[in-house]
Amino acid sequence: MTVAAASLASVAAVAAAAPPSTVPPPPAAAAERPERAAEDRGQPVTVDSDKMERFGRESLVVFTGNVVARQNSSVQYADRMEVYLDEKGDRILRTVSTGNVRIITRDCRTGTARRAEYHDLEQRVVLSGGARVWQEDNVVSGESIVIYLSQDRSVVEGGKQERVKAIFYPSGDQPGDRKGAPATARAPAAGCAN
User: Fold this and answer.
1) Is residue 155 pLDDT above 90, yes or no?
2) Cα distance between the two ends of the chain
3) Domains assigned to the chain
4) Which of 33, 52, 114, 182 has the fewest CB atoms within 10 Å, i.e. the most exposed one?
5) Is pLDDT of 157 > 50?
6) pTM, whole model, 2 decimals?
C-alpha cells in the first residue's frame, strides 16, 4: 500500500468537526473507514511519472517528474515519490513523496503538504510542511498532520511560525449563507464538485 492508498483513504479523518489538536472522523465515516482501508489494500496501485529508477540492492523505486499515483478512485500528485519495498519486493513498506504533494480521496477530501510519508507497519501517514486538509469549506492546517490509520485518529501540530488552525461549519450551512466568511480554495477531482 502506498501513500496513494493509505493517506488517500485516511486523510478523510482529518477534516471533521472536533478540537483542532486531535481530530476524529464523524461517526458515520468511522464505521465505513475500516472496510475502505481493507478494500484499498487489495486494489492495484498505478503510478505515472516522467521517470522511474529501480535500485535493487536498496529495494527502492523512485518516481520523478509529474508523479500521479492512483488507487481505488483516490489520487496523489507529487514531484517525487520514493517507494521502499521489502526484501522480496512483494510489499511496500514505506513511501516518501516530496514537492507539491496533493492528495484527493475518493470521498472528495483534499490534503496538501510539502512532504507526505507513509509507514505500512505502523499504519501511519505524516503530512508535513504547511500541511492542510479540507472538504468543502471545512479546513484543518498546521505544520504537520499525522494520521494513525489503524486507530482512526489524527493529530495536527503547529510550528514555530504558525499555530494549528481549524475551521468547521455546521453541515446545514451553505457558503452563501455566511456573511463575510471567506470561501476555502478547493481542488477538483474526478467525481468531486468544484
Assistant:
1) yes
2) 28
3) 3-177 (2.60.450.10)
4) 182
5) yes
6) 0.70
